[in-house]
Amino acid sequence: MKTISAALLLLFSSVAFSQPAAQQTAFESVQESTDILLKRLVEVKPIHESDPDLFFSEVDDALNPYIDFEGFAKRVMAKHWRKATPAQQSAFIERFRRGLIKTYSTALLEFDNQRVDVLEPSSHQDVDKAVVEISIHANSGAIYPVHYQLELQEGHWLVRNVLINGINMGLQFRTQFNASMQKYRGNVDEVIENWSVDAAS
């Protein structure tokens, strides 16, 4: 679905190409990095045509330091996290990370000069947690709200969850994981092996 794909692109736009300074607010970090990303799209997209592997690698390198994949994955596994072995936890984090980055890469190719507005929070934000809203203005005229849930860790704002057009993606992924646990009769290894982010879209 293009709407979800474009929104998933913007999930990472707040952190993809700019390391936020410690003194920045979450809003300032999202605004700065979104501006940088949109300017760089022209440079990044052709990489896929000439060298898809390099394109994926560039996306991976850009995103990995700035997304709290472990925190995100832990919330997706929920109660199953505590029951999983450290090896299984690590395997799911890696699988989850690769799935999100692959989805991001696809969304990056679909993004076509949509207008993006970063909205300054209207209410008080916690010192180490924040919610920042981005509005995606599609070429059709429709407006899609995206809410980032961020946490400040060691001076850097990291995305831990996202709501797209009212849909809580973390909850969607958690529901998907629980359904897979039932499908594979509690076999965590099989759930991880067959995990796909696209299935939650």
Question: Which structural traits does this protein have?
Answer:
single chain, 201 residues, alpha+beta, Nuclear Transport Factor 2, Chain: A, 5-stranded antiparallel beta sheet, 8 helices, 5 strands, 54% helix
Give a structural overview.
This protein has 201 residues and is of the alpha+beta class. It has a single domain (2-195), classed as Tgt2/MlaC (Nuclear Transport Factor 2, Chain: A, Roll), CATH 3.10.450. The chain has helices at 2-13, 26-50, 52-63, 69-77, 79-83, 86-110, 169-183, 188-193; strands at residues 115-119, 129-137, 143-153, 156-164, 167-168. Strands 1-2-3-4-5 form a 5-stranded antiparallel β-sheet. The longest helix has 25 residues, at 26-50. It is globular and about 45 Å long. The model is unreliable at 14-22 (pLDDT under 50).
